[in-house]
Each structure stands twice: as C-alpha cells, then as structure tokens.
Amino acid sequence: TDDENQHDEL
Amino acid sequence: MNIFRLCGDMSHLAAIIILLLKMWKTRSVAGISGKSQILFATVFTARYLDLFTSFISIYNTCMKVFFIGTVYFTIYLIYMKFKATYDSNHDSFRVEFLIVPVGGLAFLVNHEFAPLEIIWTFSIYLESVAILPQLFMISKTGEAETITSHYLFALGSYRALYLCNWIYRYYAEGFFDLIAVVAGVVQTILYCDFFYLYITKVMKGKKISLPA
C-alpha cells in the first residue's frame, strides 16, 4: 500500500 | 509513459516474439541458451510479484502477464517439446556464479529492506546479467544464426531505450531510480560487443561467426 515503493516500469 | 519507454517495451516484446517464431517455425531451439531463459523466467517471476499487490495500469498488467507466460512457454519448448534440438553441451555457463552474488547484492544494496523490495532488486540485478549464458554459448559455438542475432539485438535495444527513458523521466518528472539505472547501464554494456557485430555483419547480410 506504500506508493513510494510502487515500481511502474516493466 | 514516453516514447522511449514505449519503444523499449515494444522492442522487448518483439524480442520475445522473434524468439518464439524462430523456435516454432524451425521446430528447433538450436543456438538458444536454456539457462538464460531460466534466468529471465526468474527475473519476471520475482519482479512481477507486484501483480498481486499493486495495480498500475491495464497495459502494465497485460505486459507482465504476457512476459511471464511466454518465458515459461519458451522454457517448455527448450526443455520438453524441442528438447532433441537443444544444445546442452554448449550451454555450460555456471549460473550459480551469477545467482549467488546477485542475491547477496540485492540484500545489501536496495531501496528498502523489505521482502518484496529485496526480491524486486534481485530481479533488476539478475536481469542485467541474465544474457551472459546466451552470449557465452555463442562465444563457445563461434556463431549465431541471423534470427538469433535479431532476437539479441531487440533484447539489448530494450534496455538501451530504457536508459533514454530514464534520462527523459529525470528531467521531465524528477524520477530517478539509481538501482534500475546502474543495472540498466551494466546490462546495456554487456550487449555492446554484440551490437558492434550486429551492425558490422548482420546488417550487411552476413551471419555472425567468430574466429576460432
């Protein structure tokens, strides 16, 4: 749920 | 999403499709390193665990599912369906020499000491060196089929395009992921030798063959 650790790349 | 990122992803997609078509049409996995494909399967599985924890976009989810699905299908073709054509004698790179140090490094150098984050970091580091068994195999046999060269060129271009994407994102969005960038630079450097051969030989209609 922590947005900071969301990786948006493949 | 920017043009570099999109081109990078399309290049990655093209690489996978080229490889599958080569194997399917020729009914052969000759010249393809099963070990590199197992490493890529490890990379995708580890990195895309976030399919279960976070949703980014339909595009993101579809690409992840496609990459995971196709890499396991590729492994099935190499080790089962077209096993007879698999050249295991030349696929002799010791992958433990990659997995162990990369695993250790992921523990030591990461953005956050949390399980999913360490696994993500592991996948980024492992991807940067996952092509080595394939390159080793080519150096051992001294040649690569032209279609295999196209595959490698597309696969190498993907991370090079991501480097452009990261430069763009740094200036446009202030986005900067040191781990991904350093690993991406390493990954791209490993292909440089191959890029040179591709441009000087394959683009002129010759196949890659190394002096014995």
Automatic annotation (TrEMBL), chain B:
Membrane topology: Multi-pass membrane protein
Parts forming coiled coils: none
Localization: Endoplasmic reticulum membrane
Domain of life: Eukaryota
GO process terms (BP): protein retention in ER lumen; protein transport; vesicle-mediated transport
Membrane-traversing stretches: 65-82, 94-113, 119-138, 174-199
A single GO cellular-component term on record: endoplasmic reticulum membrane
Main location per the UniProt record: endoplasmic reticulum
KW Protein transport (keyword) present: yes
GO molecular function: ER retention sequence binding
Family as reported in the entry's similarity comment: Belongs to the ERD2 family.
The protein's name: ER lumen protein-retaining receptor
Keywords recorded for this protein, A-Z: Endoplasmic reticulum, ER-Golgi transport, Membrane, Protein transport, Receptor, Transmembrane, Transmembrane helix, Transport
